[in-house]
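Anyone? Bumping this.
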Amino acid sequence: MISVKKVNNKPLNLLEKIYLWEIARGLSVTIRHFFANLFNPGNILTVPYPEKTIPLPGNARFRTRHRLKVRSDGSPKCVACFMCQTACPAYCIRIEAAEYTENTVEKYPAVFDIDLSRCVMCGMCVEACPEDAIAMDTEELTGGALNRGELLMTKDGLLRNLPGEPSRKGAANRLANEYLKSRGEE
Amino acid sequence: MPTLTIDGKPVEVEKGTSILEAAQKLGVYIPRYCYHPKLSVSGNCRMCLVEVEKAPKLLTACSTEAAEGMVVRTVSDKVKAARRDVLEYLLINHPLDCPICDQAGECGLQNYYMDYSLAKSRFKNEDKVRRQKRRALGPHLVLDNERCILCTRCVRFCAEVTKTAELEVMGRGDHSHIDMKEGKALDNGYSLNIADICPVGAWTSRDFRFKQRVWFLKKTPTICLGCATGCLIEAHHNENTIYRTVPLPNPETNTWLCDHGRLAYKAVQGGDRLVKGVIKNGLIDFEPALREVAARIDEARGAGAVAVLGSPWLSIEDNAALARLAKDALKTENYCFDFASEQGIKDGILINKDPSPNANGLRLVKDAHGGISQAELSSRIAAGQIKVVLAEARAAGLIKDALKAAGTRLIVFAANKGEIPAATYATLPYASYFETPGTFVNYQGLRRRTTPPAEAPEGVKPLWAVVNKLAAYSGSSLRLDSAEDALKGIDLK
Ligand code: SF4
Ligand code: SF4
Ligand code: FES
């Protein structure tokens, strides 16, 4: 069954039908704001992005550009399990796995690309990651770019830690922890 | 013939059948790890426990013989609790490294955990027994002892199927682990089957290692062309790349697959793959190569000095197209579809004495189109009556002595650069049977058709299509628009 909503539009009165009066009323709102902003610029709500930004409200910073976390020995925390690539609804992650000969973690991503021009900023990749290796907390908005290439993030561009990291918090990988310990890099 | 009841449904089975197999007949699935239909029963994993009326304890369905009047329950609370507990036990020491494990997605532990357990682990990570992580064993496999649940399928496979017995359970209790016996190498020619039958990620394939997650793979059933046995296989592929082939067990031909046949798919996509024409030693585009070949054929044709040789490595379709080229376009009598082959299983498992997959199919082409014998062709070449020979690369090797002696120009069809015989004048590429359908008849006389899992590289056509074009250059039309057209006139029986 399609539900039908009845809308009772009020019939226009004479003044509204004349039209010019309503136009003037609307313009007066615009003009009022124009003068208010002109004499009191501190109250302007919009900022000239991207030159200027405002702090992101609440948890919105967890929907900003991706990064891949790095272990204390400089290796990516990511083990190329493909969970994020599988979960991504926009098919924008491309991983190629490779094998460490030495490191007991065995597997790492040789290629890790995120095509931001396709990304819908849903955060599924972060949810899916069993290693806490990918995060969307750089507080950089994925704004416009002059060509598509700029929106393709590769492993080099993604790998970085925030100040205070690497922390062992959330290091799910026993093998990684053991490896770091064996090198004295806890 | 005992009749028993499983979950309220009666079933009559042969004497000696196990409860697990009887249930299978009814379509009731009983979870299992150590049971494998083609290996001896071991009964060590306890995953298959079922409740049997009048039995004091739960019984293992895989090792209990079905008896007259038995009443079996596979879904009672007691059975469910047993399955949960067995899984908890098997997972106590499991490292849970699914993110880096190739088995993830087709793992017995993952699947049964989702189906029968979903319980939280009660054991601390630190208390887990550690075992050796990855190590390469044999030319094709990697073993991770920590993931192993000791079902001994691998041990039994090596002892019973290949009879080489390289593997054994070493140590006792917490120290038990699978290892290779001293002085052995695990290179029995069937070793990759171990990666298939291992229900967890303990044995994985080195070839497939980290190449692709299994849930991305699409599956296409096709046939192996490694020898005349013609095993049924399933090609696993994604985005036009084949990542592995696995056996498709069937009662007629095969349960397993030999390593040689299993890795044959690699030739199709390796750097050795031929995607352009070759004139002498230089690569050139397909069209100019074809024109050059046509010109050479035209030169020799007037004198009736062109010969065409069929090949047991080619499908019936492609051989038939070659026969039509000789008969209807070149109008020569110098064509041969006659190959002697001795067939039969060589090693008691799968590998055939005849390394070519289609000697029997070739016979059907010969019956339909005739032709001279191979000895006759060789002698005509040796006598210098033939100036140009058109053949498939591997078949050309069979007459190479005659060719060399007479200095005849050889033009071959090849899918791989490595196949091209020395002193070949021109080579034309064709689509392999991973890329185009082809009909083959195996040593048992079973006719099977390949289903292509991938597409041929750009510009590479099926052999029958290349032949069709060649005929057009020679001024006659064979009207071959599909593989089926080539089959016309062949009695497939
Ligand atoms: S945020 Fe969503 S769309 Fe963007 S990469 Fe992650 S999973 Fe894909
Ligand atoms: S889910 Fe995490 S560990 Fe897995 S591939 Fe993605 S970033 Fe790497
Ligand atoms: S399948 Fe019956 S005990 Fe393992």
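Late reply, but here is one note on the structure posted above: The mean pLDDT of chain B is 94.
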